[in-house]
Write a structure and sequence with these properties.
176 residues; six-stranded parallel sheet; 7 helices; 14% strand; alpha/beta; Rossmann fold; globular
């Protein structure tokens, strides 16, 4: 019986790595006053399909205003992307006035550690905002960073990304 209990605890612990602390459909739905009340001082932000559509290279005014609002509220920000286009990531970071990391290799911890170093915060003072359960949320949860999943339900045309989105939706539905 003890072995079964231990196995169940391990399984529940594993499943919790794929369970975001919050789920919203858009960055505008995040309650930043509630985050501040939880002691969150900084945000690690994914770029593609979180702040901007993957195929967009310019900054929408609404995104610029959103970033300015977060800064005015006192949040420290860092862009952390798995993008293989470092010049695009640098351009977005420079335009928004935010430090930016490309080639993040999320969910591996290296980019998260670098983001925390840049932000000058501890994991429990930081939130990760991203649209990929197997990259952004898993990586954040491994390091005990507060995780916010952007579940935009965007239709994917690339087959591998489509399968990933289907797996994400299955997990979100069945991993409570």
């Amino acid at each position: 019986m003890e072995k079964e209990s231990s196995s169940n605890e391990y399984w529940e612990s594993f499943k919790s790595l794929f369970r975001p602390n919050e789920i919203v459909t858009d960055i505008k739905e995040i309650d930043f006053a509630a985050l501040k009340a939880k002691g969150i001082k900084a945000l690690i932000l994914d770029i593609d399909d979180t702040l901007l559509p993957r195929e967009v290279n310019d900054i929408y005014p609404a995104v610029f205003e959103w970033v300015v609002s977060r800064k005015e509220e006192g949040f420290r920000l860092c862009l952390t992307s798995n993008s293989r286009h470092p010049l695009r990531v640098k351009y977005i970071g420079d335009t928004l006035g935010i430090p930016a990391i490309s080639f993040g290799f999320k969910p591996l911890p290296f980019a998260f550690w670098k983001s925390l170093e840049i932000l000058g915060t501890k994991p429990e003072e930081t939130a990760m905002v991203g649209d990929q359960l197997f990259m952004d949320i898993l990586g954040a949860n491994i390091l005990k960073i507060y995780s916010i999943f952007i579940d935009h339900k965007k239709e994917e045309k690339f087959i591998a990304r489509y399968w990933m989105r289907q797996a994400e939706q299955w997990l979100l539905k069945n991993n409570k």
